């Protein structure tokens, strides 16, 4: 079954949705959208470094995303003006990555595959890596769920219950870096944040509890992956952007009709 | 042994000393009220006790197993977070449905389980916060200006509830208040804070202390500093005496 590239692509997309649903919910609740963007853009720098030092691309992106996410969350706890700081970091990392890739000797690199994803080219081992990573992130978030939620509500409320909000923040940082490394192949660096935010934001209108929102976000993400791939097949459009377009369509539908569904 | 104690606690934000040499302790069953003007470091002291703010000097002693029930000044819940009252009460630890129902009933909010937290009024939210604090069977309740943003009847009702809960459970209370009007009449001790401890003692002692009057009486000719309670301030009698004067 996995011999069909379209089936592999669907599996890859659904795998990303499994991790992006719950993580994306936290990104929305904690207003970390730009934080996700900065980390995702840094992935391009990771690609460049991985190619230069000839290590696997997913390892390079994971390490650089981890460094970026840690740096950003460290800066945020030091009370820096986050808006400008994130902007500087995100775009510098992206630009620096693009410049660095041009220095990679030998093969010409297909830049658009990293910027917009290349989900139709995922191999069986890519699918395996995506699912292992996605299940790791889902398990990590499930394990810390109550603590993460309490820390998201209020640092003081968390501290009174013996929860270190900063440590829980690191859990999200780690999860974000893993998801960025996984999703790079699927939707590309420019649209990873969209995969995190749009399904979760769509799920908000249908959910009454945080858990419902996370599960619905997984469903919407998976649905978008399937619908986007189908659309891309039928209309011959780029796959990654088609997936994000599909999730945007779900968002609009929920915004328009979600109220009726909840009644 | 004290439930919580600070030892020469010092907290600085940048170059600003917010707290300096603060020694505060709360014994089991004790009611301690912290008063001080805005910006005097009250909330910072609470945060340091909770462990959210790291001291730049001195120490905070608090048993690792101490069960704290914390009621914040306010809780902003982002509109993007769907959260029912029932789910909130079970954070971070799950409680049985009958336990949460009983806690809600105790604070006069029975049947509110399915409401969204973001739909609650200010007074309802503070009561739900108190219910959550009580669910952990706390040894100490820490309340940081819990009635800020409530109107006067709401404030009075909240304190009545708090006094009743305290009578039933004997839990120790450490409460921050912006002035002496709204301290619990049963406070064992009032601590007046303005970056350092200005004075402390029973409510009566503190409200007569020159340090307190200097801090609160200024500009309002002492009107704000009056500690008014029915039993120690009765204008109906012709020979009206300030009974607290001879205390």
Q: What does this protein look like?
A:
The complex is a heterodimer of chains A (263) and B (247). Chain A has a single domain (5-191), classed as Orthogonal Bundle (ABC transporter involved in vitamin B12 uptake, BtuC), CATH 1.10.3470. Chain A is built from eleven helices and no strands. Chain A has helices at 5-29, 33-52, 57-77, 82-102, 111-116, 124-153, 155-160, 165-187, 192-204, 210-235, 239-262. In chain A, helix 1 runs parallel beside helix 6, helix 2 packs across helix 3 (57-77) and helix 9 runs parallel beside helix 11. The radius of gyration of chain A is 18 Å and the shape is globular. With 247 residues, chain B is α/β, with parallel strands linked by helices. Chain B has a domain at 4-67 and 171-246: Rossmann fold, CATH 3.40.50.300. Chain B contains seven helices and ten strands. Chain B has helices spanning 42-50, 85-89, 97-106, 122-135, 152-169, 203-208, 210-216, and strands at 4-13, 16-22, 25-26, 31-35, 57-62, 68-71, 140-144, 172-177, 189-194, 196-201. In chain B, strands 6-7-8-4-9-10 form a six-stranded mixed sheet, sandwiched between helices. In chain B, strand 9 and strand 10 (196-201) form a beta hairpin. Chain B is globular, with a radius of gyration of 19 Å. The model of chain B is unreliable at 218-247 (pLDDT under 50).
